[in-house]
Amino acid sequence: MKVEVLSHEADGIRLVTLELPEPVTIGGALAAAGLGRDCEARVGMFGRLCSAEETISEGARVEVYKPLLADPKQVRRQRARIRRPQA
């Protein structure tokens, strides 16, 4: 079964294409890609959050999501405060 694993590296996004036996879990695919089963990051498939125990099927794209550096709502509020004219 062909599976892709995407993760963030210091120099960009890393894409690993694997040929794995069925059945395989997200955690198994991460381990096969060299990311380890105990990866602390959030993981998902095609933009949907999943657990590491979820079984995947042929053609799945497992994604490792990096944590946000800042809360998007807070950043928008700060930008609005800066742009707002002072009375």
Write a brief structural summary.
With 87 residues, the chain is an alpha+beta fold.
Strand and helix layout:
Blueprint: E1 2-9, E2 12-19, E3 24-25, H1 26-32, E4 42-45, E5 48-50, E6 55-56, E7 61-65, H2 72-83
Task: Supply database-style keywords.
alpha+beta, single chain, 22% helix, 2 helices, 7 strands, Ubiquitin-like (UB roll), 87 residues, two-stranded antiparallel ribbon
Low-confidence stretches: none
Per CATH, the class reads Alpha Beta
Shape: elongated
Number of domains: 1
CATH superfamily: Beta-grasp domain
Mean pLDDT metric = 82
Strand line-up in the sheet with most strands: 2-1-7-4-5
Distance separating the two termini: 63 Å
Question: If you had to describe this structure to a student in words, what would you say it looks like?
Answer:
Helices cover 22% and strands 37% of the residues. It has 87 residues and is an alpha+beta fold. The protein has one domain (2-83): Roll (Ubiquitin-like (UB roll)). It has a five-stranded mixed sheet, with helices on one face. Strands 3-6 form a two-stranded antiparallel sheet. The longest helix has 12 residues, at 72-83. The protein is elongated and about 65 Å long. 16% of the residues are buried. The model has no long low-confidence stretch (mean pLDDT 82).
